[in-house]
């Protein structure tokens, strides 16, 4: 058990570094975009759309039952709607229009459940760590760090809040990996529904929070340009690293 905790903690630390790398790159891009937060968020919406098109959807519909996926998507969208209602009623959380930030973070946490458990299960039975697989798993969290940083509004303590989210996210993934290391049954139905929930929650954030809400304040041409750039960037990123699934 101690060895499993050690491995999951080690991976969680590397994930924290990957998230921070993504956040730091967004800080640089923020200057390139002349401190235009909306443009950067539309770009990140393009990243999410690319993640859907080139990673999540192909995997979901090739590995899992479509009915289970659609059920999970419905549950995921329902969770997001409930969460948004809660945020609107909570004046403290809604103070700086941070809905996108919280909804994205929740979606990423849900996404970490199947990915973390699957990675943990791949390390069961004392198998040697596949460092290529480990590198792919770690690097897949760089875009997540970019999206988290981009979703945080320009408020005092932005970097501290980003650090808190990265820490919490890394810990949750570490816990999911630990669960996967100790899981003895691979439930296809469970994985199918969780994958569907992941698609539903992240789809809600991508299409509604990032693209629909933010695009109202920019010209359609600029929105299309940033979305295409984001999708192409994600496609190239995914092409140059092996799949961790």
Structure description:
With 245 residues, the chain is mainly α. Helix content is 81%, strand content 0%. It is built from nine helices and no strands. Helix 2 crosses helix 6. The longest helix has 31 residues, at 2-32.
Instruction: Give the total of beta strands.
Output: 0
Write the H/E string, N to C.
HHHHHHHHH
Mean pLDDT: 82
- The outline comes out as globular
Helix content: over 70%
Features:
245 residues; mainly alpha; 9 helices; 81% helix
Could you write a compact summary of the structure shown?
With 245 residues, the chain is an all-alpha fold.
Q: What order do the helices and strands come in, and which of them pair?
A:
Blueprint: H1 2-32, H2 37-63, H3 66-89, H4 99-122, H5 131-139, H6 142-151, H7 158-182, H8 188-215, H9 220-239
Helix pairs in contact: 1-5, 1-6, 1-7, 2-6, 2-8, 2-9, 3-8, 4-6, 4-7, 4-8
